[in-house]
Each structure stands twice: as structure tokens, then as C-alpha cells.
Amino acid sequence: MQDIYSYIDENKEVYIQWLRELCQIPSVAAQNRGMEEAANKVISYLKELNGETKLVQTSGFPVVYGKINGKISKTLSFYNHYDVQPEDPNDLWDYPAFEGVIDGGKMFARGVADNKGNLVARLAAVHAYQQVRKELPLTVKFIVEGEEEIGSIHLEEFSEVHQDLIKADGCIWEFGYRNADGRQQISLGVKGMAYVELVCKGANTDMHSANAAVIENPAWKLLWALNSIKDQFEHVKIEGFYDDVLNLTEEENVAIQQLIYSEEEMLAGLELNSFLLDVKGNQLKERLIFHPTCNICGITSGYTGEGSKTVLPSEARVKLDFRLVPNQDPHKIVSLLRKHLDKHGHQDIEIIEMGLEKPAKTPLKNPLAESIIKSSKELTGMDPTVMPMSPGTGPMYILCQKYGIPSVSVGVGHFESNNHAPNENIFIEDFIEGIKLISTVIDDYANR
Amino acid sequence: MQDIYSYIDENKEVYIQWLRELCQIPSVAAQNRGMEEAANKVISYLKELNGETKLVQTSGFPVVYGKINGKISKTLSFYNHYDVQPEDPNDLWDYPAFEGVIDGGKMFARGVADNKGNLVARLAAVHAYQQVRKELPLTVKFIVEGEEEIGSIHLEEFSEVHQDLIKADGCIWEFGYRNADGRQQISLGVKGMAYVELVCKGANTDMHSANAAVIENPAWKLLWALNSIKDQFEHVKIEGFYDDVLNLTEEENVAIQQLIYSEEEMLAGLELNSFLLDVKGNQLKERLIFHPTCNICGITSGYTGEGSKTVLPSEARVKLDFRLVPNQDPHKIVSLLRKHLDKHGHQDIEIIEMGLEKPAKTPLKNPLAESIIKSSKELTGMDPTVMPMSPGTGPMYILCQKYGIPSVSVGVGHFESNNHAPNENIFIEDFIEGIKLISTVIDDYANR
Questions:
Q1: How close does chain B come to A136, measured CA to CA in Å?
Q2: Is the N-terminal amide bond of B423 cis, ω within 30° of 0?
Q3: How much is the pLDDT for A218?
Q4: ipTM
């Protein structure tokens, strides 16, 4: 691979410029800014690869599709997105959010880590391979959506209508990071999600709180309902909630033990004294990766402004996200929640579904993961860290596992990339290494 | 008293005009509108009574004070306020909020029931008595504050500095209503209040909710703390909370039984099927009047806007009002709450005190109450309803019981006066009757 690596090193300014230009487009899906421009920029790069490329319309922002045929029909796909999170709060950025300033070996920009750096590294890897070896050893596909940061709301529609486009032998997922110890982190799955809002109503109007002696308060009622859902030991008390959770395999246990998690740095950064339930070490890592959660994202009722107001509220609302693990099913979880509320006398608490995603997991032993692990070790001289699952969520199931496609995450971010936060950044060195890694995987995976 | 009653009837248009003019001043303390104008208007009426009158400065809006000497030094005082609640929402009013339109025998205006109608009726009673009999049989005082609707925040300061001004043998309190059955309602006390905000903090920043598996969520923590404070049977679980609550006296039990509460109309108006814990009848009335409460006025944490956001909040807040009954002490209740939270592992939940008021109660058997009950019966031909306490709260203790002054509430509102709400109103007939009642009490109380 030295010929390709040399080409990448000699042309690195070209690829850095590709990345900078894409980062200069403020493609914030939530605010409908720069979306068409970003999609067209990705298409222009795909055209440099002499492949088939098109903008596939959906009911929302379009998906950029690209396919470059190689020597064999075996296909490696890349799932990425051209949209980014909003950049605010602007005053906490040390550099403009949409310029792509390089300082201290890092490029700073909203989206540079999540996930324009990964997208451009993959485009560049294909480009460099072609420049040196003329033809790719296998076929590659790019699926680049525009709604990842707003919940991939039309991606299932896309995948169902265009099953032919997403068909592949393996998929490299959008995110990936380097750990504090310098190793690349590879992950093989994502948690699922059941996001619901619970609405509890009382009288038809807010009342003077003197009436609290005789009129039910929906905030208290909602609170008691929530208390029945999870106890102080973080145990979800919905009957059947844990029934479908798989036991960890021996391989997964080993992976947990090998995983590096910088506990002290994390606590210091958050100004906390301990983790939840005082967990540490392997127990902490296992919770983070393999435990389902029930989290209050937001709760509101009554008067929440400055000062005091003596009011008996007429309504209370809570937003809950359940992060789910294989093989929990979000539809089943919502149905169990309904049963639970009914059983506890809360038939009148309404459940509004606000986003259901299945968890997804690729087995540790599969040709794509093996190819990436081997390529990472060859390139960096270190074994990568393998996470059997990521604690986050994404539309992996509807693009990959639903159609039997294994998926693996690896990328050019690092543990302090500040995704979704001010001063988002990647190291230029990681970006170049990421281009080399993908070109190596293209070469290696073709022969597995 | 027929001579005075006749004078009142013959001059009722004068007194209605007094009321209308005061109601036309939008004296909203919370918005600092029309406050000086309203205070001056009250002073101009007091000057008609040929008494001593002055504007007493406080750190907030001034108190209007008036004193009219009578044949004896025995003193009856009137506590009122010249401020009103904000009038919004404007679009729900059938008449302008600050015109004093009369329609169907009622005057409609913000503050006409709470409590400009009572204030003007008392001024008019003194005026009519003087016109007919020249000299009052006893001395009367007016204490008219400007901050009742914003928590009487400087009234304790006023009362401590001006103990000479508030000194009296009995005090007629600001509010009072006629029941659905036409009887006047007399009440002899108010609940106390401990209004607190609880603040629970987590990490120093909102986080991606994937971290909920290992980082504590302050919303859940606050919720479990609240759950430890009150159970689903509405029992407050703070150790010692009920220790100082007095048993009902035989007289109070009788008063509860005699009290009229229109359960069906109340439920229909609120579109509810039942009261809290399905209470009815005497049990309902006893709860309303004699039970302390722990009410959630407002709760907030995390993302409460439209749609979904997967966030682990860094803070959660709740506003609680405890309505207290004799002899509970709000300072002691806050201290018990602190101990309770500490004992349940919530040392890090902060308590912010936002308003502490002691409950106040005047015994059923006292000369002022007896005088009002007798006068009401003589005037209306019906026994009034006597409420040993009101479910509401007010600064009664700091003006009356603290200095041994008995206090009784009676006034010109009715059960559908819509205090604090659109279309606030009183019946003109009740207003005229209220003037007659106060003139009768002045006459009767002088001889007790």
C-alpha cells in the first residue's frame, strides 16, 4: 500500500482543501441553511471519482448517492451525512464555525468531526486508490443523507423505496474516533430508541393553588407515574422491559475489558464526584454500552418563570428517551409502557410516540470488521479498540441489519472532537491516516 | 339603622360612582400601572370622611392610612388593598377590564371583587353613618396596601415600623363572598404558606442522552426526592409535618357541616369526574379548609420545546407551595423539609425560600365575629355561613394575630365573582347590602 500512502501524503493539501470547502457550507438541516449547496458539493467530489452519482429525492432533504464500479461486484458502502448540528452558542467558539481554520494541527469547524471529515476521507481514499491503481478492487457505494442531525426522518422511506441502491456486502458507518491512548476505536452497533412524550391533564384550567387540597394536580400524578417506571437503583420497573435483552457473549465481555474509558478526565470535565450509582471500571463500561436506559430529556408543568406564582397546573408533560439494546424492540417497549401505566392507574396519561429506532449490532466476527481491525493495526502499529456497540443511536438497522448488511464504524474523530458542541475539531494527522485506512480496507476487504 | 339604610339607598348612585372611578384606574402592582393614581383616589375618599389620612412610604408601593375618631377609642380597622391582578387575557373579557360597565345588575371590572368593592363599601359605610348620625360610635382605621397581589412583600416591614397605626380591637379583612344559597360567608382565618424552590444540579453542562447510562440525571433525582415528600394518598411524608396541626374543635366541626360547597357545579365547570381522592361532602370541606397541602406550582428540567431532543439535563427545578394550617410554622416546615431531604440522600438539593407566611385564625367566639354574624342575619334575614378558615393565604398574621387583633372576613363578592380571572364582577345589590352591613357592624360592635 506504500504507493497509495505516498500519493496521499503528496496530495494531502488537495484533500484538506476538499474538507475545508465542505466545512465552509453551513448545512444545518434543522434551520434549512446551505443544504442544496452541500449536497451539490458532495456530488462534485463524487464526479471526480468517475462514478455514477445522483441526488435521490425524498419527502425531506435528498440523499446523495454514488456508485463506483470496481473489478468485482462485491460492494463496500459508506453511510454518511452532509448535514450538521446548529453551531450555537457562537460566543463559545474560538474560531468561526464555518471557515475550517487550522490551528495547532487541528481543523476547527461545525461538522468537521460529525461527519464531514469521515465523508471526505472516504471520498479521498477512493480517489487516491484510483489515481495510483486505476481501477478499484471492488465496487463502492456512497449513501449520504441530509437529515441525520434531525433524526433521519425520511431515511426509512428512502431505504424501502431504493433497496437496490443500499444493497452491499458491508457498510462502513458514519462515525468513528481515536481514543485517548491513540488507538482507533471501531464499533459494531448502535442502541435503539423509544422517544415518547407523556401528557397528564387535570382540570381544564390552571387554578389558584388553594384548591390543591381537593383538586388533583397533574404534575404530582405524572411524577408518581414516573416513579413507578424507574427506581433509585436505575432499574426500569416496566414489566417485561428487560425480557429481550441479550446476555453478553464471551467476546463482548472481553471487548468490554479491553475498552479504555478515561474515568477521571470525564468526571473532572463534568465537575462530578462519581458516576451513576458509583459504577467504575468494567461495570461502568458495560452499563454505557450494553444497558438500556430510561432518561428524562425534559419535564414541564405550571409556572416555571422567575419568582413565585401559586398555581395548580392543568397539565404536565415529560419527554422520555429509552435507549434500547439488542434485541429490544421500540414498538414493544411503548406497548409495555402503555400496559404499565394502565396497571398503575394512569390510563389517562397519554403517550405520544416521537421516534422509534431499533438497536443494531454486527457480530464481532465478520469479514468487514476483521478487515478494518487488520488494516488499522498494519497502518498504526496498534490494535484498535473494538466496541461491540456504541452508546449512541442511529438509523443503522433500517439501512443495514434489516437487509443483512454488516456495518462497522471507524472514522477520523478523536475523544475530544466536541461533536455537537463549540470548537468541534479533528486532527489533520488523523484525517490523513483515515484516508489511508479506508484505502487499505478497500484493498483488503476485496479479497475476503 | 333604618335611617342609615335609607340614606344609603337614596345615595347609592354616589357610592356606585365612587366604585366605578376607582375601578377605572388600572392599578396593577405587578406591572406598576396606575398605582399612584389609585392611592390618591383612596386618599380623596378618606378626606370626604374628615379623618386623618396619609400615604405611608415603604420600600415598595406605599400604604394608604386613614383614621376617623369616634365617640370612643375602641377601634375597628379595615384591611384592604388598592392594587389588582393583571387583567390578561384581554380577549376573554366581555367588557373592558377598566371601565366598570354595569350589565344585568353586575359591575364588571378587574378588581371590583378583589377588592375595590369591599374597600369602597367600607368607605361608603363610614360616610353614610357620618351623614346621618354625625359622629361614629367608635374609631375606625383603614389600612390599604398596594402589594397584596404581589405577595404583600413590604407589609411586614410596614406593620413592624407602624405598630401604632395598625393597633385596633378588631379588623375586618379584605375579602368576602356570598354563597350560591344567598347567605353571606364569613371567615375567620387564612392558611399559611411555605413557598420554596428546590434546585437539583447534575453535570456542569447538558449532555448527549447516550450518557444517561452512567451519568446521574438531576430530573430523576428531583423526582425521587419529591416522591419521598408526598405519597399517592396525598400524605406528606416529611417527619413532623403534621405535628403542630390542631384538632378541629366541636365548633369548627359544626361549621364544616353547615358550610355549603357546590360540588357538582364545581366539577362540571372544571370538566372533572371527581375531587382529589374522590372526597365528598364534609370530608371534602374539611380538606379544603383544614388540611395543609404540598402543591407543585411548577416543575422544569431539560428540553421542553416542540419535538424531541435527546438531552441529559444538567439541572432540575420545582416550585412547591405548602399551605399551612394553625399551628404550623413555615420556618419550621422548611427546616423539616431540609432534614427530610438530607435523610433521604438529597443533601445536594438546594432549598430557596420564596415566601413564608404563618397561618392565622380567630376563634369563632369573639365580639367582632358575633357582631358581624348578628348584623348579617338582621340585614338579610338569613344566618350567614361561617368558615372557621379560608383555604387561601394572606398577610393576616403579621397585621392581626401577631398583635392580638381578631380578624374577620366579610365582603361584597359572590361565589362566581371570577377573582383573578376575566369578567370579574360583583352584584350592585350585594355592594349596597355590603355598605349597610358595615354600617350596622360599626353601630353594633361599638357596644360589645
A1: 38
A2: no
A3: 98
A4: 0.87
